[in-house]
Amino acid sequence: MKTIIAAYSGVLRGTGSSLLSTVQDLPSIPWLSKSRVERHLQIISVLQWVISFLIMGVTCTVILIYIFCTDCWLIAALYVSWLVFDWNTPNKGGRRSTWVRNWAVWRYFRDYFPIRLVKTHNLLPSRNYIFGYHPHGIMCLSAFCNFGTEATGVSKKFPGIKPYLATLAGNFRMPVLRDYLMSGGICPVNRDTIDYILSKNGTGNAVVIVVGGAAESLDCQPGKNVVTLKQRKGFVKIALQHGADLVPVYSFGENEVYKQVVFEEGSWGRWLQKKFQKHVGFAPCVFHGCGFFSAESWGLVPYSNPITTVGKLLEIN
To answer: pTM of the full predicted structure?
Structure first.
């Protein structure tokens, strides 16, 4: 019996050694490497924001209407009741969430390009500010990353300053999307909201306004820089009225993350874009980035070109 046990133990030891050597000889799996996994997480984090930007509001509206037609209509009715009660919250600075602004997904978002925020001046918490941001690009990716999240450390670089990224007021009329935007400290870009933040919300507030607006996205092309300022200088008047300091902000590389199909003046495509801009408030663009699995294919994933955001303080006495 002892002989049998000894022989069996020897076989097990031999098998263990064989298995260990076999595992060590296995080739590494490229898509499971740390760098590849991190890269895929970065792409997913950017893609989820792009999809949210493009279809989240419409999708949630359709789902809400559909729920009204089902046996769960009471849930939709309760949400709509809350929506009516909460309708003016975006106009009073919103409802930011430190937890949402510090999600790990935004750090992956930042590292995909990467996006960097450069501090050139100290900002006093005893003052209010208006950041005149340029360029708009296709989706204001760097503006969102820098001021709608804490990925680039805006609160650490400017202690006591609370940024409010201003965007189209129509976004806050869409269910769920409005709450998602407000959680990042995003507010409507209208006169009432900006007046409230600069006059009734204390000090240390910084309203970030993309001065060219959605119209500027029509001229967003790699290697091209067009500032749209005609009839868009009201932010300067507001700054003077409230004694807020102006901070011109420029993001180098924002126009390089997407390629746009540009319609010539007089073409039906350009005519349609201008009509949308005039009557709806935004300009539909035909653009593309790269694919999820290949930079050579077309897709919604932006190109991973570095973006550096820099500002310059202009004091108003």
So the answer is: 0.84
pLDDT of amino acid 28: 53
Compute the distance between CA of residue 173 and CA of residue 159 in angstroms, rounded to an integer: 32
Question: Does residue 5 lie in a domain region?
Answer: no
Q: Is residue 160 part of a domain?
A: yes
Please report, for residues 227, 261, 298, 302, the alpha-carbon distance to residue 292 in angstroms, rounded to integers and kept in the order given: 31, 20, 9, 10
Question: Rounded distance, CA 52 to CA 144, Å?
Answer: 13
Cis peptide bond upstream of 114, omega within 30? yes
Number of folded domains that form the chain = 1
| 43 in any annotated domain | yes
HSE of 122 in the Cβ direction (CA atoms, 13 Å)?
5
Strands 129-134 and 205-210: parallel
Q: Is 173 domain-assigned?
A: yes
Q: Which residues, given as ranges, of the chain have pLDDT below 70?
A: 1-32, 278-283, 295-296, 315-317
- 3-class SS string, 51-113: HHHHHHHHHHHHHHHHHHCCCCHHHHHHHHHHHHHCCCHHHHCCCCCHHHHCCHHHHHHHHHC
Across-strand partners of 316? none
Would you say 129 and 209 are in contact if contact means Cβ atoms under 8 Å apart?
no
Rounded Cα distance between 199 and 243, Å, is 10
Counting Cα atoms < 13 Å in the Cβ hemisphere of 166 gives 28
Question: Please, is 263 exposed, middle or buried when counting C-beta atoms within 10 Å of its C-beta (0-12, 13-18, 19+)?
Answer: middle
**For the segment 125-183, what is each residue's pLDDT rounded down to a tens digit?**
999 999 999 998 888 999 999 999 999 999 999 999 999 999 989 899 999 999 999 99
* H or E element at residue 156: helix 154-157
Chain position carrying tokens 């409005």: 178
Q: What is the token pair recorded at 70?
A: 């089902």
pLDDT at position 199: 92
Range of the domain at 65: 31-311
> Rounded to the nearest 10 degrees, what angle do helices 191-199 and 234-242 cross at?
20
Q: Give bridge partners of residue 134 from the DSSP assignment.
A: 250
